[in-house]
């Protein structure tokens, strides 16, 4: 009873003609998104950088957008695919509004829709190269979830994409607690974003924090974090190190 | 000149272990709640157990997006069944449906490792174990997922299954009582958690009996 599935890239997919019809690698990418649930709803932070490989090409990209009345969508990965997803969601929200029945799509519904979209693109071997964070509040219930480019999704009290998953999540696991105040939530997110600034080469020091509550969405103006570079370890990083580390 | 391809795989393994044990009038289905990717943990509280029908509970580990899609397909097929036959699907019926659903994608499989547990038409516990493309077998107990290789030999030792070669065919249902079976499950998961990095955080146990379903949760090591 053993059927093993090959997990590496299949040879059947290397045909040049069919390759031009599907996404092979990302071009302009955004780095981490970090988001937490707090007392009144959800806070989501991202920087405004768009990298073109190792070049920091764009420095004014908004990677967190409001969706309908109750949700916030943050994206890391390919920026053009994020824009396409926003177009899909525009149509979804438009059709929802056209019913004119007083009901509106909540964050859970949008998250489910996005999961299905990402999974179906993965099934066609033409993924949308993003990891998405969906947060929102509806009827007093906060919601926060994540979808990856192959359709893996889950919800939690705090999520982070890309490098954020490695660097921010441990901080959040230690310091997040239920019913954070707005100020404490922002401080916690800034702590995470600062670590990412120091350690993620594609992060830039220009960030936005978006807030969603029952009342609605607020996206802050872009601002920078204070950084401290006088740590001993930064001064002479290779002192005492053997070899090339 | 071959183009450089980014290594993109449509599959990922989100880890985790599932176990089920069949008793004379009960069935125990258990799974850990850790969801991982590579060496990172995505969630410490993700349930791998899903009730498909009153008497059929599915537990699956593997690639979580495929598992979710598989559940949705089975749930919707069950709904149609209920509309057409005015009754819930029995566990053996669900077992066949799951097998057929998996084989349907034989050439782009659901990367899901399933254990289906429940009560058969006579009220006896039944466990069905699967591979990713639908080959299945009715057994007295089974483990699937990242910790299965650690757990299965121990279950073999403890649950003394009669040889399937015997004639007349003997049931592999364990004579253990329900509390003993639940205790055994807790023991095997505590052990698997020690050595399997993808198993841990919390253990979710569902006990199915004729009068209903009970759920228990136990903490596991989080490292």
From TrEMBL, chain A:
| Record's keyword terms, sorted | Cytoplasm, Nucleus, Proteasome
Q: Report the main location listed first in the record.
A: cytoplasm
- CDD domains the UniProt entry points to: proteasome_beta_type_4
| Entries under SUPFAM superfamilies matching the protein | N-terminal nucleophile aminohydrolases (Ntn hydrolases)
Question: Which Pfam families does the annotation name?
Answer: Proteasome (PF00227)
Q: Where in the cell is it found?
A: Cytoplasm; Nucleus
InterPro entries xrefs: Ntn_hydrolases_N (IPR029055), Proteasome_alpha (IPR050115), Proteasome_beta4 (IPR016295), Proteasome_bsu_CS (IPR016050), Proteasome_sua/b (IPR001353), Proteasome_suB-type (IPR023333)
Q: Which family does it belong to?
A: Belongs to the peptidase T1B family.
How does it associate, per the subunit comment?
A: Component of the 20S core complex of the 26S proteasome. The 26S proteasome is composed of a core protease (CP), known as the 20S proteasome, capped at one or both ends by the 19S regulatory particle (RP/PA700). The 20S proteasome core is composed of 28 subunits that are arranged in four stacked rings, resulting in a barrel-shaped structure. The two end rings are each formed by seven alpha subunits, and the two central rings are each formed by seven beta subunits. The catalytic chamber with the active sites is on the inside of the barrel.
Q: What does this protein do?
A: Non-catalytic component of the proteasome.
Q: Which named protein is this?
A: Proteasome subunit beta
Recorded source organism is Brassica napus
UniProtKB/TrEMBL annotation, chain B:
CDD domains found in the cross-reference section: proteasome_beta_type_1
Q: Which GO terms describe its cellular component?
A: cytoplasm; nucleus; proteasome core complex
Would you indicate the residue range of the signal peptide?
Answer: none
Q: Which UniProt keywords apply?
A: Cytoplasm, Nucleus, Proteasome
The protein's matches in InterPro entries, at most eight in alphabetical order, are given as:
Ntn_hydrolases_N (IPR029055), Proteasome_bsu_CS (IPR016050), Proteasome_sua/b (IPR001353), Proteasome_suB-type (IPR023333)
Q: What is its main location?
A: cytoplasm
Has keyword Flavoprotein? Answer: no
Q: Does the keyword Metal-binding apply?
A: no
Gene3D superfamilies noted in UniProt: Glutamine Phosphoribosylpyrophosphate, subunit 1, domain 1 (3.60.20.10)
| GO biological processes | proteolysis involved in protein catabolic process
Q: Where in the cell is it found?
A: Cytoplasm; Nucleus
Q: Which Pfam families match?
A: Proteasome
Source species, domain of life: Eukaryota
SUPFAM superfamilies hit by this protein? N-terminal nucleophile aminohydrolases (Ntn hydrolases)
Job description of the protein: Component of the proteasome, a multicatalytic proteinase complex which is characterized by its ability to cleave peptides with Arg, Phe, Tyr, Leu, and Glu adjacent to the leaving group at neutral or slightly basic pH. The proteasome has an ATP-dependent proteolytic activity. Non-catalytic component of the proteasome, a multicatalytic proteinase complex which is characterized by its ability to cleave peptides with Arg, Phe, Tyr, Leu, and Glu adjacent to the leaving group at neutral or slightly basic pH. The proteasome has an ATP-dependent proteolytic activity.
Record family assignment: Belongs to the peptidase T1B family.
Which PANTHER family does this one have?
METALLOPROTEASE TLDD, PROTEASOME SUBUNIT BETA TYPE-1
Q: Summarize the subunit comment.
A: Component of the proteasome complex.
Q: Tell me what this protein is called.
A: Proteasome subunit beta
């Amino acid at each position: 009873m053993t059927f093993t599935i090959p997990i590496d890239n299949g040879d059947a997919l290397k045909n040049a003609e069919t390759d031009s019809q599907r996404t092979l690698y990302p071009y302009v990418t955004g780095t981490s998104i970090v988001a937490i649930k707090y007392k009144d709803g959800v806070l989501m932070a991202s920087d405004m950088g768009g990298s073109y490989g190792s070049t920091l090409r764009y420095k004014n990209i908004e990677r967190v957008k409001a969706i309908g009345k109750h949700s916030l969508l943050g994206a890391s990965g390919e920026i053009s695919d994020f824009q396409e997803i926003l177009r899909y969601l525009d149509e979804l929200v438009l059709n929802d509004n056209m019913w004119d029945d007083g009901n509106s799509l909540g964050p859970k519904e949008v998250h489910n829709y996005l999961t299905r979209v990402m999974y179906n693109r993965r099934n066609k071997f033409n993924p949308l190269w993003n990891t998405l964070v969906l947060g929102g509040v509806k009827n007093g219930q906060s919601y926060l979830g994540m979808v990856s480019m192959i359709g893996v999704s889950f919800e939690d009290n705090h999520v982070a994409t890309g490098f954020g998953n490695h660097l921010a999540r441990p901080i959040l696991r230690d310091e997040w607690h239920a019913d954070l105040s707005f100020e404490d939530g922002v401080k916690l997110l800034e702590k995470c974003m600062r670590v990412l600034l120091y350690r993620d080469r594609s992060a830039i020091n220009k960030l936005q924090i978006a807030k969603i509550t029952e009342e609605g969405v607020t996206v802050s103006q872009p601002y920078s974090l204070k950084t401290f570079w006088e740590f001993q370890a930064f001064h002479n990083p290779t002192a005492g190190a053997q070899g090339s580390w | 000149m071959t183009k450089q391809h980014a290594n993109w795989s449509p599959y990922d393994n989100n880890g985790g272990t599932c176990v089920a044990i069949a008793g004379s009038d009960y069935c125990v289905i258990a799974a850990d709640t850790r969801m991982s990717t590579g060496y990172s943990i995505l969630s410490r509280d993700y349930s791998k157990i899903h009730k498909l029908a009153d008497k059929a509970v599915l537990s699956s580990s593997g690639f979580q997006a495929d598992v979710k899609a598989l559940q949705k397909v089975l749930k919707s097929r069950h709904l149609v069944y209920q509309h057409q036959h005015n009754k819930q699907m029995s566990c053996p019926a669900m077992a066949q449906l799951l097998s057929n659903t998996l084989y349907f994608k034989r050439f782009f499989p659901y990367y899901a490792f399933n254990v289906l547990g429940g009560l058969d038409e006579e009220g006896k516990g039944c466990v069905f174990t699967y591979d990713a493309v639908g080959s299945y077998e009715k057994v007295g107990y089974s483990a699937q997922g990242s910790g299965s290789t650690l757990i299965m030999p121990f279950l073999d030792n403890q649950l003394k299954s009669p040889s399937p070669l015997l004639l007349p065919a003997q049931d592999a249902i364990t004579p253990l009582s329900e509390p003993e079976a639940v205790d055994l499950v807790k023991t095997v998961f505590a052990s698997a958690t020690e050595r399997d990095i993808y198993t841990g955080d919390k253990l979710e146990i569902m006990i199915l009996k004729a009068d209903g379903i009970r759920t228990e949760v136990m903490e596991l090591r989080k490292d």
